[in-house]
Design a protein that fits this description.
alpha/beta, binds guanosine-5'-diphosphate
Length: 363
C-alpha cells in the first residue's frame, strides 16, 4: 500500500496508460518530484535577507502539525532569535465591526510611509472552531496587502487557543528576523484571546465605539486593566460628538484604576480609521511610550517576563497535548469518566490514577 502511494501519479502504473502528451524528459529530471526537505540554514538566511516567500514558508513550517516539521521549526526559530531587534509589538482588540481591519490598514500605511516595515498577524479563536481564519483576511486590507513593506498573515488554525497563540508568538520571531519592525497583532474581542495577545505584545490597544452614553457597560472585566490606550473609532460625521463624549467617559474610568507598574497612564483617543484621522497622533503616542519604557527599563523587563511566561505556557500546553493524545489515556479517560459519573470513584482519585497510567506509558 505504502509502496503504491510512493509511485508518482505521473509515472506509468500497471493498468493505467500514460497519456502521449506527457513530458518524459521533465519527469526523468525529477521536475515533478516532491521537493526535498527544507534546509533550515538556507531558509533562515533567506528570511534574514527579508525574502517574503521564505518568511511565509517558515511560518507554514511552524504552523505544521507534522512532528518533523515542528522540530525543524524550532531549529529555525533558534536561528532567527535576536534580542537586539528594535521592533514594537502592538496588540489591537475590539469587537467585530469596531474597525480593526480598517484601523490596521490606516496605521500600517502611515507607518510604512515613515520607512517602517509592518507585519500583521492575528489570533482568532473562532478559527479553532471553523478551522479557518476570518481575521487577517487579505481582502480586508486592500491597500496594505499591495504595500511592499507590509506582510499580512491570517491567524493560524488549531485545536486550542494556546496552540494558536504559540504559533503567532513564534511567527513574531520570524517576522522580526525578516526586518519587520512594527508587528500588529489583531484579535477579536471575545474569549480569552485578548489575554494571550496581551502576553505577547509591548503595547495593547483597545478599540471602542461610541455608544448611547453607557460606554462602559458590557466591557469585559480585566480588559481595561490590560489596555495601554483606549481609542474610540469612527469619530466622523454625525458620530464625532458622541465619540468625544465616549473618550471623556473612558478617561474618567481609566483614572479609577490603580497606576500600572511601569508608570504608564493609558491615554484615550478618538480616531476615524476610514478617513485616516487621529492616526498620526496615535503613532506618536506609541513612539513616546516606547521611549519612556526603554528609558525606564520596563520595555525589556516586560519582554523577559513574557518569555518566561511562554516557556511555562508551552510546557503546560505540550504536557496536556501529550497526555490527551495518548491512546491508552483516551481509553482510560473514558472508563474513569464513567466511574466518576456513577460515583464509583472521586474525580481526584480518577485523576491520580490516570496520571499514574501516563507515567507508566512514558517509561
Ligand atoms: P473589524 O471587524 O473590527 O475588523 O471592522 P472593519 O475594519 O471590517 O470595519 C467594519 C465596518 O466599519 C466597515 O464597514 C468599515 O468600513 C467601517 N469603518 C471602519 N472604520 C471606520 C471609521 O473610522 N469610520 C466609519 N464611519 N466607518 C468605519
Amino acid at each position: 500500500m505504502s509502496k503504491q502511494k510512493k509511485i508518482a501519479t505521473l509515472k506509468e502504473q500497471e493498468g493505467i496508460k500514460t497519456p502521449s502528451n506527457f513530458n518524459r524528459t521533465a519527469i526523468s529530471k525529477g521536475k515533478y518530484q516532491r521537493k526535498k526537505t527544507v534546509d533550515i540554514n538556507v531558509l533562515s538566511t533567506k528570511i534574514k535577507e527579508g525574502n517574503i516567500a521564505a518568511l511565509a514558508q517558515g511560518i507554514t513550517l511552524l504552523e505544521s502539525t507534522n512532528v518533523a516539521h515542528q522540530q525543524q521549526a524550532q531549529e529555525l526559530i533558534s536561528k532567527c532569535l535576536n534580542d537586539q531587534n528594535s521592533s514594537i509589538r502592538i496588540g489591537i482588540t475590539g469587537v467585530p465591526g469596531v474597525g480593526k481591519s480598517t484601523f490596521i490598514e490606516s496605521l500600517g500605511t502611515s507607518v510604512t510611509a515613515l520607512g517602517k516595515k509592518v507585519a500583521v498577524l492575528a489570533v482568532d479563536p473562532t478559527s479553532t472552531i471553523t478551522k479557518g481564519s476570518i481575521l487577517g483576511d487579505k481582502t480586508r486590507m486592500e491597500s496594505l496587502v499591495k504595500n511592499e513593506n507590509a506582510f499580512i498573515r491570517p491567524s493560524p488554525s488549531g485545536s486550542t487557543l494556546g496552540g494558536v497563540a504559540r504559533k503567532t508568538r513564534e511567527s513574531i520571531v520570524l517576522c522580526e528576523a525578516a526586518g519587520y519592525n512594527v508587528i500588529l497583532i489583531e484579535t477579536v474581542g471575545v474569549g480569552q484571546s485578548e489575554v494571550a495577545v496581551h502576553d505577547m505584545v509591548d503595547f495593547f490597544l483597545l478599540l471602542k465605539l461610541a455608544g448611547a452614553g453607557d460606554e462602559l457597560q458590557g466591557i469585559k472585566r480585566g480588559i481595561m486593566e490590560m489596555a495601554d490606550a483606549v481609542v474610540i473609532n469612527k469619530a466622523d460625521g454625525a458620530n464625532e460628538h458622541a465619540a468625544k463624549l465616549a473618550k471623556a467617559e473612558f478617561a474618567r474610568a481609566l483614572h479609577m484604576y490603580p497606576p500600572k507598574a511601569n508608570g504608564w497612564t493609558p491615554p484615550t483617543f478618538t480616531c476615524s480609521a476610514i478617513h485616516n484621522k487621529g492616526i498620526t497622533e496615535l503613532w506618536d503616542m506609541i513612539v513616546s511610550f516606547t521611549i519612556e519604557m526603554k528609558t525606564s527599563g520596563h520595555f525589556i523587563k516586560n519582554r523577559q517576563q513574557q518569555n518566561a511566561h511562554w516557556l511555562t505556557q508551552t510546557i503546560e500546553d505540550q504536557l496536556k497535548q501529550k497526555f490527551y493524545n495518548n491512546a491508552t489515556i483516551i481509553a482510560a479517560l473514558d472508563t474513569y469518566k464513567n466511574k466518576v459519573l456513577q460515583s464509583e470513584c472521586s474525580p481526584f482519585q480518577a485523576a491520580e490514577i490516570l496520571l499514574k497510567i501516563h507515567q507508566e506509558e512514558l517509561k
